[in-house]
Design brief:
The complex is a heterodimer of chains A (183) and B (298). Chain A is 74% helix and 1% strand. Chain A is an all-alpha fold and 183 residues long. Chain A has a single domain, classed as Orthogonal Bundle (Arp2/3 complex 21 kDa subunit ARPC3). In chain A, α2 crosses α5. The radius of gyration of chain A is 18 Å and the shape is globular. Chain B has 298 residues and is an alpha+beta fold. Chain B contains 5 helices and 12 strands. Chain B has a 6-stranded antiparallel barrel. In chain B, strands 6-7-8-11-10-9 form a 6-stranded antiparallel β-barrel. The longest helix of chain B has 51 residues, at 59-109. The radius of gyration of chain B is 23 Å and the shape is globular. Classes of the chains: A mainly alpha (183), B alpha+beta (298). Chains A and B meet through α1, α3, α4, α5 and β1 of A and α1, α2, α3, β1 and β7 of B.
């Protein structure tokens, strides 16, 4: 990805939209007794396009925004989403993404990682109340919902960042060059 | 070259992790008036209107999804409500008799005034514009703040029972910590027996509250109502007025009562799908925000 200033502005806008849509819409839904959390999907999709270090930075910034908007313990979401963003970006650097199923799978598994990590942070930090086993159901349902949500988010994020994507550029140029020959 | 890149990446990652840990420890160490808390309230001021706008824009879609969900649940809920109506008719008759006796006895004993928890208070109705998706935080954001007379620690009602208390206030928004949040503890009693205890949350299950620390040797039965006890000691006064309904005892086994001194309570307020809440403010303070400003932002 080419990190021009306008691309960074787009990244920031996507993160802001993700947080606002989460708080204003998804947080008001309930699916199988669980409130969906689509923020990790946006972080994973952005990290898959941007790489490990930008992915970690995007996760950190998104977590900071979520914690600030919800008056939660600052740093907890940042740490969980930072991990998810880094792992997604690292996957992109080490492996190819041959099909759209890969981002979907990664969104599901890294949501479980982020939500589970957040739970672990909360559990070790400050909880002195009883913890229900339904916390596990919460992690599973959130991950399953995010696999479904991942497809439209993946295409939307790719479309929004297309000018900055390196792998899309040569393809388009080659197509244009070969067009007269094909004709 | 490659090694340097790897090293640079590791250093940057370590810095981000260190920044997160520093934020966590600083946040825990500082008071509610500290720098990071003030920064959060500032973020809430900026993001509050955006949340409200998104909430209004997406309302038809979320209502549609809610309607589909409700339709699936409606049949089971209807049967349960019919059973509850039959049970409540019997209890209403008993309650009316008790109220009438209470009025007569109060007159005989010369006790003035009613024990209504609304005495000296008025309700400010607010719309829920945001909520935490995490089971570890049961909080909602509402579209009223100190300008409507809200202040920190005021009780909040929602859908027929106690919902929580105001935990953060800005001029136009406020955050409510629900009774299902793990930081919440409400002194309560079972009516009509008067068995006291503390209502606490079970993280991950918003339909299950625990009435903890109930007195030994006193029995609580399934179906009994739990209300706030409104403790009025000089050392530790309850934030909630006496008599606000909290929920109904749904599980009260002898073993659990004797071993753990607790029973399970289902909250009256539908805390999973709150759209509107009512904040109890001191009578006459609604609409005036000077006092609330001072308290909420201190």
């Amino acid at each position: 990805m080419i990190f021009a200033p306008q691309v960074i502005v787009r990244l920031a806008a996507i993160v802001l939209v993700a947080v606002i849509v989460q708080l204003g819409f998804f947080s008001h839904l309930e699916i199988a007794g669980t409130v969906p959390d689509v923020v990790p999907v946006f972080v994973v999709c952005l990290a898959l396009l941007a790489g490990s270090l930008p992915g970690a930075a995007i996760g950190f910034a998104t977590g900071l925004l979520v914690d600030s908007a919800l008056i939660q313990t600052l740093g907890a979401s940042s740490l969980a989403l930072l991990g998810a963003g880094y792992l997604a970006g690292r996957y992109r650097e080490l492996f190819e993404i041959p099909s759209v199923l890969v981002p979907l799978g990664l969104c599901g598994s890294l949501t479980a990682f982020a939500v589970g990590g957040f739970a672990l942070i909360q559990f070790t930090l400050e909880v002195d109340a009883a913890v229900s086993a339904l916390v596990l159901r919460d992690i599973l349902v959130k991950s399953a919902v995010n696999v479904v949500v991942a497809a439209p988010v993946w295409f939307a994020v790719r479309r929004a960042l297309r000018p900055a994507l390196i792998e899309d550029r040569p393809l388009r140029r080659r197509d244009r060059t070969l067009a007269p020959l094909r004709a | 070259m490659y090694r340097r890149q790897v090293r640079r990446r590791r250093v940057a990652l370590a810095l981000l992790v260190a920044a997160s840990l520093a934020l966590l420890s600083t946040y825990f160490g500082e008071s509610a008036g500290g720098f990071l808390h003030t920064l959060q309230r500032g973020a809430l001021v900026v993001l509050g209107p955006l949340e409200e706008g998104a909430n209004r824009a997406f309302k038809p879609a979320s209502d549609l999804i809610g309607w589909v969900d409700d339709t699936f649940e409606a049949k089971g809920r209807n049967q349960r409500l019919e059973r509850e109506v039959a049970e409540l008719r019997g209890r209403l008759a008993a309650a009316e008799t008790a109220t009438s006796e209470n009025t007569e006895l109060r007159a005989l004993a010369g006790i003035a005034g009613a024990s209504d928890f609304m005495q000296g208070r008025e309700r400010v109705t607010a719309r829920v514009i945001g909520r935490s998706p995490s089971v570890w935080y049961s909080t909602v954001t509402i579209d009223k703040g100190s300008s409507a007379g809200l202040a920190v620690d005021q009780p909040v009602l929602g859908g027929g029972g106690l919902a929580g208390r105001v935990s953060t206030v800005t001029r136009g928004t406020a955050q409510i910590t629900l009774i299902t949040d793990h930081t919440s503890a409400v002194s309560a009693q079972v009516v009509p027996t008067g068995v006291g205890g503390v209502v606490r949350a079970a993280v991950g299950d918003p339909d299950d509250l625990l009435l903890d620390f109930i007195e030994k040797g006193r029995r609580v039965r399934k179906g009994q109502t739990v209300v706030t006890s409104g403790t009025r000691s000089e050392a530790l006064e309850s934030l909630f007025p006496r008599g606000v309904p909290i929920g109904k005892v749904v599980e009260a086994t002898i073993e659990e009562q004797e071993t753990y001194q607790r029973v399970h309570v289902e909250p009256f307020a539908g805390l999973r799908d709150l759209d509107f809440v009512q904040v109890l403010v001191p009578a006459g303070s609604g609409g005036r925000g000077a006092r609330a400003d001072r308290e909420g932002e201190s």
